[in-house]
Amino acid sequence: MKLFYSPDYVGSAYGFDTTRKAAWVADSLTSRPISGVEVLAPAAQTTDDLARVHDPGYIQAVRTGQSRDLAESQGFDWDPALWPMVLASNGGVLAAARSALGDGASGTLSSGLHHAKRDHGDGFCTFNGLVIAAKALLADGTVSSVLILDLDAHCGGGTAQLIADDQRIWHADVSVSMFDQYSDHANSVLWEVDRAGDYLRTVEQALAQAGRIGPFDLCLYNAGMDPYEGCGVGGLDGITAQVLAHREQMVFDWCRQRSLPVAFTLAGGYIGAGLDQSTLVDLHRLTIRAAEGAESSAGYWTAPASRIPAISAAL
Ligand SMILES: [Zn+2]
Question: Which of 314, 265, 29, 304 is closest to 142 using CA atoms?
């Protein structure tokens, strides 16, 4: 399985989990390789792909640092390396999506995507690489429909805003924290979970509903680990590493059973009093392992060209 990462993902001077943890996970794959995983550098996101989703004034601010308020609206101090960092990590989502369409499953060590809005950043997210990748592949005719599955602890309010005008994209969002909450749109459905005992059942319901809305040509999976009970930024008591391992198996099994190509991103997960760096890395490795297991299963993938987009009809 191809997994996308380059040192540019962690290039900004501002040190925070979102701007550093891709390197922690990549380093772990050097010291403790996962069999079958090949780490590759993606092409940087093009400005054409960015401009399809984000406001030109906001893109300019992130590139130049002016205005500073706008350039830092995601919550990071701006420096010139922020621009190449976000182009690399957002480009990684598109690279992983293209790779998944060929191989069945792929991923990128990108995070900081789903809260980004059209004209500003939010919640450690600068640009919304999930929507950028979906719209790039829809624009060039590579796919006709995309499922964005978001199991980060927090709500994907940026994604909901950015896809509201495009019924070819459907967004299933299971959250345990109401940060960036939104009202359901025709193509974004939010499930709120406040008891750990309901979590996996709710993920199952979200997948079942996606199954009724689809089929889709591609799944982009925002695989946040911040629902973990030890995570101080979104964690829910009772959501253990075992629960999250089960979740990852469910998601990739569900995709495999449908021959649905899937590309994952790391999304949330933050070190703190209840979550140290090596535990966080191991949580994210659960996603990589489950994806690699799905990708290496025989007969995973069938040509997406054979699929008929059914989202508009279903809605
Ligand atoms: Zn989150």
Answer: 304
